[in-house]
Amino acid sequence: MRTIVSFDAGTSGSKIIARYRSVEYPFEVVEKYFVVNPSVRQLTSRSYRSQLEFSEDARGVSGVVSYVDPSDKEPVYWDVGETATRPGPLLVSDRKCENLLAKILGFLGYLVTQEVDPQELMELDLGILLPWDEFEDRRLLASWLRELLQPTVGFNYNGQPVNNIQLKKIDCKPEGYGIYKHSSSFKPTGVLIIGHSDSSWLYFYKGKMNLKLSQTLPETGMHDFLQELPFPITHELLAAKTIYEAGPNLKSKVLAQLTQTKSEQEIELLQQAIKDAKSQYWSDRRHQFKSLADVEQILVSGGTAHYFSKELNQLFKQLKGVQLEWCTSLMDEFIQKFDIQESARSQLSHRFADCFSYYKTFVAKLQKETLVQTGG
């Protein structure tokens, strides 16, 4: 059977769903979701060799990747996942095709060496969701992957050669595409994905996406909200996770993790700072969202969207007279399929809604193509 991977490379973490045959007896077909640390860092050859000494102790989807750069045929080295994490704010403007290539190869290296039989040829169907402002790079990314993911070329993962992948099909879509396919409405429809770094707005009418009315909304993510806080952020993703967990009531016990003294006074200052930051954040967002094209329905997803759900519902009701749709049935299906623990359901289901729906659409498309080819 062919391995299928749906890859959504978000700033707060790569969301991935994969279907493959397990390397463990009884070698059943596995469908599994992964949340991978988004950190990526280019290394010098010397740093790469030093990092290899620690790669055997890496846990989860972390490690080092090396390959011959398709653009200039020079060897390049990358640290991906947890081991590439550095303190301080994320460099959200540093997203580029090369970084995404390293992330994808890092996950595929993990998949080949840890989850499937590394001695067998893995025929791969790869689907990728790209932020709208990176969608124009899809052909370049696809050409690089086609060059590297063939048995005669390959790459190295944690020092081990990975040359048993054969890319059979690659499909690139803008983030939000999965959400729309779940709806399949022919009405004028907007899809709003609010992530950690920014937001994507896709406009669909009669089943087709309007490129002119689709856009990226910069400085609308959790990253920019955190920048409003007058508190030092030593680990941005951890700070975001803590604020999510504190909820709308800003639970003191949870927020104490972000303070130095954990005193009641410092916690109260942080709570007020979050309230003030929210006010400023929504004052800035009002003008951006007001400029969006009028539609009859708006589908919403993303971890940051979930955190700001109350404000979003109120704002779009005022600005557009539209009640937001949160894809509840899709998220329930994801929770049931992967048996998500109750404590993680809310966050994971909102973060994975787009990736999960895209995965289902991609699998259905591949099955249909197989039937046509076999005359079934």
Automatic annotation (TrEMBL):
It comes from Crocosphaera subtropica (strain ATCC 51142 / BH68) (Cyanothece sp. (strain ATCC 51142)). It comes from the Bacteria. This is Actin-like protein N-terminal domain-containing protein. CDD domains: ASKHA_NBD_ParM-like.
